[in-house]
């Protein structure tokens, strides 16, 4: 069983769990993104960003945000909508082939806000079949679906 720690970021607007042994990393002074990873790793970067919108009709706004998502699920305990997807990419600096798993999680914060967290996990493509990578992706999918907004 993986030991988990609760992380509260963006001045408490987003709370979620991450593996205990992960550390917060640096990301080119980007104040809109948080980065987590295992220490001393060359692959396996977990990024989180948050978008907040004000709306007269938050439910309509939330539906609008996810209207083009190919497959959406809902976390029954939080009520959040979740889109999971993945894509391939190439690191422009190194030419390394990457696999990016990403999740968009959105919910209403009463009375009139809609928050959308974008989580991504980037791994070298040639490592995606390693059992520990597959376990990490499954764990992250569970953890991000339980993210809480305030």
Provide structural commentary.
By secondary structure, this protein is of the alpha+beta class. The chain has a domain at 42-76 and 88-93 and 105-150. The protein contains two helices and ten strands. It has helices at 58-65, 131-145; strands spanning 4-9, 14-19, 23-24, 33-37, 45-54, 72-74, 81-90, 97-109, 113-124, 148-149. A hairpin with a 7-residue loop joins strand 4 and strand 5. The radius of gyration is 16 Å and the shape is globular. The model has no long low-confidence stretch (mean pLDDT 93).
Overview features:
150 residues; 7-stranded antiparallel β-sheet; 2 helices
Main sheet attributes: strand count, strand direction, barrel closure: 7 strands, antiparallel
Mean pLDDT: 93
Elements, N to C (H/E)? EEEEEHEEEEHE
**Which regions contain 5 or more consecutive residues with pLDDT less than 50?**
none
* Total of helices: 2
Tell me the total number of β-strands. Answer: 10
CA-based shape: globular
Report strand %. Answer: over 45%
**Strand arrangement, major sheet:** 3-4-5-9-8-7-6
Rg is 16 Å
Q: Structural class, judged by helices and strands?
A: alpha+beta
The helix content, as a percent range, equals 10-25%
List the helices and strands and how they pair.
Elements: E1 4-9, E2 14-19, E3 23-24, E4 33-37, E5 45-54, H1 58-65, E6 72-74, E7 81-90, E8 97-109, E9 113-124, H2 131-145, E10 148-149
